[in-house]
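Hi X.,

You mentioned you wanted examples for the new student's onboarding notes, showing what a folding record looks like when two proteins sit in one file. Here is a clean example. The first protein comes first, with its sequence line followed by its C-alpha cells.
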Amino acid sequence: MLHSVDLSDYMVQGPITILAEADLFDAIHMIIDNRISGICVVDEHDDLVGLLSEIDCLRAILAVTYNEHGDVGKVGDYMTKEVDYCDLHADLVDIADDMVKKGHRRRPVLDHGKLVGQVTCRQLLRVVSEFNQNAVVV
C-alpha cells in the first residue's frame, strides 16, 4: 500500500515556463515540442501567475475559428488564473487525492512562494509503480 511520500522526491524540477505576454502559438509549440500537457505561466519575476493546458489552447483556437478573428492572442488571455499549487514538502498521497477530486493533471510546486517544480499524473503513476515493484509480500 502506498504510504506518505515527500513530494520533493518525485516532482519535475524546474518546469518549463512561459510569460503571460507570450504569443499563444509560442506556447502551443513549446507544449508540442516538449511533449507536455500544459505549461506554467510566469510573470517577469518568475512568479507563477497561471497554467496553460492543451485544453486551454484548443479552446482558444476554437474561439478564434468560430468568431473569425485573425489573431489568437496571448497566453494570459487563455491561461487558467486560479491555480491550485502545493508546497515543496507536501504529502504526495494528499496531493494525488486532491488532484483526482478536482480533475487536475498537473500541479505547480512552490517553495516559499517561488516555482520550483511541478507534479503530474505521470509522476504519480511512477511513484505507484515504484512502490509496487518494491513491495514485499509477507
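Then the second protein repeats the pattern, sequence line and then C-alpha cells:
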Amino acid sequence: MKSISVSFTVLLAGGLFLSACSSQQSAPADAAGTTAPAVSGTETITLKFMSNGSTFTNTEFKNQIQIPVQKKFPNIKIERIEPPTTTTLQELFSSGTIPDIVFASNYNPLKKVQAIEDLRPWIQKYNFDESRIKPYLMGYVKAAADNGEIYALPYNSNQHILYYNKDVFDKFGIAYPSDEQMTWEQTFELARKLTRVENGVNYIGLDVEGLTGFTKSLALPIIDSKTGKSLLTSPEWLRVFNATKETFEIPDFLPKDKTKYSWGRDVFMKDRTMAMRPAWLANMVGPLEELREQGIESNWDIAPVPNFEDKLGKTREAQVHSVILTKQSKHKDEAFQVMSYLLSDESQRNIARNGRVPAIINKELEKEYGAEVGVLKGKKIQNIFVGEPLQDHTIHEFEGDVTKFVTQANVDLANGMDVNTAIRKASEAIDKEVERLSKNQ
C-alpha cells in the first residue's frame, strides 16, 4: 500500500499555503458517496492541509482531523504547522509552499491567486453525492462561483447560539432567557435589567458586537454584487443601524474607551461578567473547552439566538466552513479522497460529537452533538437547533477591504453620531474605496 503522509497545516489568523509531492489514482467511491481510501505503492506522499481565519483549536484539530484521519489512513502522518500570522497569502504562494487542501469560509483570497480547483470533475470521477449536503451550505458554495464552478465542499455549519451566564442572572434575580426564540426587543429588555456597575465591576447584559452582529440576522452584504455600490442606505441596513444604536444607549453598556463599542468574548469566558453573548459555535465552544481543561469553568448555558420579530423561525446566517482543493496540488486524487472522507457519515458523526454542526443531512447526528465535549455536558443542546439558519451572504471581493468603514460607523454611533449621518458617512467611504480598488485591479 502506498504510504501517505498528510501534513494538516492550520493557520488560525491570517495567511495560507504549504507544499506537496506526487500522486497516484485512488479507489472508486463507496455507497455513501465518499471514496474508499485505498491506494497502492510504497512511495510516501505528503499532502498539505491549512486553515485560514476560522477558529480551530488544537483540541478540535486533534479530535476531528488528526486522530480520525490517521485511523482511516494508517500510513498518514499529521502535523499542525502555524507560520507567522504576519505572512501573507501572496508571500507564502510566491515562496512555493503550496497546500493541497485549505479549510476556509471566504474563498476570495484563494481566488485572487488562482489557487482554487473546480471540484466538478472530481465529484463526477469519484461519484461524490453532493445532495447529501445541507442545501443552505451547498447553496453558498454555488453562489460564490463565477461560471458554475464548485469551489469547495462544506465541512461543517458554523451556527449561532445565545450564550448566557447563569451566575450573572442569578446575582440580579433575573429569569434565564427562554428556550423559545426571543425577539431582539425582548433581549434588549433583559439586557437593560442586567447592565450595571456594581462595586466597580461592569456587568454587561448583552454584547451583540455592533452592526455586523445584527447583519447576520438578515444575511446582509455590504456591497451590491451587481453595481459595486454600498448597500448601507437600504431599509434593512437602516434597521440594523437603529438596533445597534439602541444597544449602545443602554445605560452603563459602552466602555470608557471612546474608540471601543463592544467588550469581546473574554469578558464572557474569563471575566464572567457578561450575561449574554450571541456568537458562532466555533467561536466559543472550542475555547470554552480549552479553559475547562485548564480548570477554568463558567456556569453558562444555551438559548436560541434572537432575531427581529418578523424573522422569528430563522436564526442567523450560517458560516460555511469548507475544504478546498488547490489548483497547484500535485496530489489531487489523494486530496479529494481525504476531503470526501471528511464528508462521510463516519467523519461527520465524529465532528458532531466533537462540537461542530455537520454539513450533511442527517438528523440523527444532531442527537449526538457535543457528546465528546466536556464543556457541553448538561447544556441545552436542543436549543442549538431551534430555528432555521440562513444561507450566508455571498462575500464581495472587496468586502474585507471596506469592513473598516462599518467598524468606524460603530465607533461613530457609540460617540453620539445620529444614524442617518453615520450611514451617509460610511456609504460614501465604501463607494470611494470600491472605486479606487476597482481601478487598481
